[in-house]
């Protein structure tokens, strides 16, 4: 029986949607193999049993859950030890994770400890009965794709790009069995120690984590003063700041704030796009946003096709008005 493991990306009881997409991916792999299979989810850190059980609605058969006071917050050395201990006891077919800052750290540690293959930014992954595994991932800004073939033993680790994981609805009413597994003892030989955690101002929050994004494009114009209304709106509504490639090329934002095919893939609850035409390469990175507002001078801008609310006008007139209204409401 093929046993595919997925890593549960969660903060307490809040499970990130991409985890459900990962469960669906594991289900597809099992169906392709045409043999009986099991999906095992691994959750590390605090989470309620009743929440983990609901992963059964997405096809997960069982959840291995390790927690403890020393696992309340992500710590690479502790989490990788806990995960590798489990893998070594059970030898699953493969480990699937969603690409994130946390899994990039975790997976690299685990691959080194397990001496196994690691694929990052995967778009597709499959295992063949002859004992090899295959992954596809984009390179050169998405213009080329690498087709990687690797041994399927020991269990390869695959980090999927969140943008390729489908939005998944629960398709059954099933309860996953939650198995409490021992967490590694708090070790005193750790190489790193968390001294403090600094909360980012919403404006500086990692775009992939942000709930609200205010994004600016070439329509704002060159120069820091022209881009300032974007920062001001973000501060007013507790949003994070992003932008298009021209804005990054002009040096108005650092590269990690670029949204799009060669930047970040974002999925906020709300994105406000200002002076952005909506080129394919940009919308590829934001089309999973739940609510989209677009402000642009050109009524024919492609961005409006993606917008739940479109405002035709000059950003330099609309944004100051909007910000002062928001401040009044506060
Ligand atoms: C291989 C490759 C990869 C790429 N990757 C990315 C990527 O990851 N991300 C990305 O963003 N781009 C990427 N691009 C570039 C992309 O093709 C577009 O050129 C870019 O997204 C356009 O950015 P923009 O919308 O800011 O500018 P423009 O397309 O110039 O649009 C500016 C918009 O502002 C409007 N406007 C002008 N003045 C005002 C005003 N005063 N008020 C309101 N609206 C106004 C205009 O009507 C227009 O719609 C890539 C291109 C290539 C070839």
How would you summarize the topology of this molecule?
Elements: E1 2-7, E2 10-11, E3 14-15, H1 17-33, E4 37-44, H2 49-53, E5 62-66, H3 76-90, E6 94-98, H4 101-114, E7 118-122, E8 124-127, E9 132-139, E10 144-151, E11 157-160, E12 177-180, E13 212-216, H5 224-237, E14 240-243, H6 245-249, E15 270-274, H7 280-283, E16 291-296, E17 309-312, H8 315-329
Parallel strand pairs: 1-4, 1-6, 4-5, 5-12, 6-11, 7-11, 13-14, 13-15, 15-16, 16-17
Antiparallel strand pairs: 2-3, 8-9, 9-10
Flavin-adenine dinucleotide is lined by residues 141, 143, 217-219, 244-246, 258, 260-263, 275-277, 279, 281-282, 285, 295-298, 301, 314-316.
Count of discrete domains = 2
Portion of residues in beta strands equals: 25-35%
**Based on CA inertia axes, which overall geometry fits?**
globular
Q: Please tally the β strands and state the result.
A: 17
Annotation field: number of helices: 8
Content-based structural category: alpha/beta
C-alpha termini separation: 58 Å
| Mean residue pLDDT | 92
CATH homologous superfamily label of the largest domain: HUPs
Q: Which fold name fills CATH's third level, the topology of the largest domain?
A: Rossmann fold
Strand order of the largest sheet: 7-11-6-1-4-5-12
Rg of Cα set: 22 Å
Could you spell the SSE succession in H and E letters? EEEHEHEHEHEEEEEEEHEHEHEEH
Oligomer: single chain
Helical residues, percent? 25-40%
**Uncertain segments of ≥5 residues (pLDDT<50)?**
none
Could you tell me which ligands this complex binds, including any ions or cofactors? flavin-adenine dinucleotide
């Amino acid at each position: 029986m093929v046993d595919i493991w997925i890593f549960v990306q969660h903060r307490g009881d809040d499970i990130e949607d991409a985890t459900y997409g990962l469960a669906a991916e594991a289900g597809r792999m099992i169906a392709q193999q045409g043999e009986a299979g099991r999906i095992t989810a691994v959750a590390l850190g605090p989470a309620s049993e009743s929440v983990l059980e609901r992963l059964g609605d997405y096809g997960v058969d069982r959840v291995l859950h390790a927690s403890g006071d020393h696992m309340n917050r992500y710590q690479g050395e502790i989490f990788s030890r806990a995960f590798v201990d489990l893998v070594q006891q059970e030898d699953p077919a493969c480990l699937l994770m969603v690409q994130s800052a946390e899994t990039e750290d975790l997976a690299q540690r685990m691959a080194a400890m397990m001496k196994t293959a690691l694929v990052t930014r995967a778009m597709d992954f499959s295992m063949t009965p002859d004992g090899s595994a295959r992954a596809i991932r984009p390179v050169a800004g998405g213009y080329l794709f690498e087709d990687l073939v690797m041994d399927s033993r020991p269990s390869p680790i695959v980090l999927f790009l969140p943008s390729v994981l489908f939005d998944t609805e629960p398709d059954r009413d099933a309860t996953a069995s939650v198995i409490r597994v021992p967490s590694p003892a708090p070790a005193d030989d750790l190489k790193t120690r968390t001294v403090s955690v600094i909360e980012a101002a919403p404006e500086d929050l990692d775009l992939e984590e942000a709930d609200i994004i205010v994004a600016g494009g070439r329509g704002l114009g060159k120069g820091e003063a022209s881009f300032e209304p974007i920062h001001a709106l973000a501060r007013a509504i507790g949003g994070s700041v992003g932008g298009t490639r021209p804005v990054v090329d002009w040096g108005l934002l650092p590269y990690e704030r670029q949204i799009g095919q060669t930047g970040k893939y974002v999925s906020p609850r709300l994105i406000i796009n200002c002076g952005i035409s909506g080129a394919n390469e940009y919308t590829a990175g934001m089309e999973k946003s739940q609510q989209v507002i677009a402000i642009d001078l050109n009524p024919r801008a492609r961005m409006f096709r993606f917008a739940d609310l479109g405002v035709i006008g000059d950003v330099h007139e609309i944004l100051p008005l909007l910000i002062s209204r928001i401040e009044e409401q506060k």
